[in-house]
Design a protein that fits this description.
Blueprint lengths: L7 E5 L13 E6 L11 H4 L13 H9 L5 H6 L9 H10 L13 H18 L35 E5 L6 E5 L10
Helix pairs in contact: 2-5, 4-5
Bound molecules: zinc ion.
Length: 190
């Protein structure tokens, strides 16, 4: 498991280092967690994954169903790879911002059409970015301009000017951080 203070980068593939450039079968950038196991033990990690947003068998209805029945906040539900596989903290934060949803809204209380729009948005971000080393939700690839909220704590929201906030979400050892704009993404009303 990675030390949280040192972002891990993983590149692996049988053709790495050959003439003509690398041909990776797996790439991970700034990973918060990384487990490496033998192929024979893969089931111990991936046997319980939800539908893969970039996989050939992507199933939007199943992903919506899994998230909808999750009793936790939507931010947690999106990051849980058992619900749907492929969303990390970057795309969870950017998708929630784009849809104007607080990460702390209970997933099960979101109208199905909003949940669906959120997951479609996240999938679109992943598809658009899968061929880029620099991940961007804004369409810009220059450093400091690639996200609306992720990594921008204390900076002004690009939409409304309110300082972007960051708070922990989830429970140890799966605790992560979530960036959000408290104005564009109003918190749940008690
Ligand atoms: Zn805002």
């Amino acid at each position: 498991m990675a030390d949280r203070t040192h972002p891990v980068e993983l590149h692996c593939g049988p053709d790495q280092g050959r003439a003509g450039g690398p041909d990776y079968t797996a790439v991970g950038l700034r990973l918060g967690m990384l487990d490496v196991v033998r192929s024979s033990e893969e089931h111990s990690l991936v046997g319980h994954l939800g539908p893969d947003l970039l996989g050939p068998d992507w199933d939007l209805n199943l992903a919506v169903h899994n998230v909808q029945r999750d009793p936790r906040p939507i931010g947690n539900a999106l990051l849980d790879q058992r619900n749907l596989a492929g969303i990390g903290t970057l795309w969870a934060a950017e998708s929630l911002f784009a849809e104007g949803l607080s990460p702390w809204l209970p997933a099960s209380e979101l109208p199905p059409e909003r949940l669906r729009a959120l997951i479609v948005r996240a999938q679109r971000f992943l598809v658009i970015n899968k061929a880029h080393a620099v991940q961007s939700s804004t369409g810009e690839r220059q450093a400091g301009r690639t996200s609306y909220v992720h990594g921008r704590a204390g900076l002004s929201c690009r939409r409304c000017g309110t300082p972007v906030r960051v708070e922990p979400i989830g429970e140890a050892p799966q605790q992560r951080v979530m960036f959000f704009c408290p104005t564009c993404q109003p918190p749940p009303t008690m």
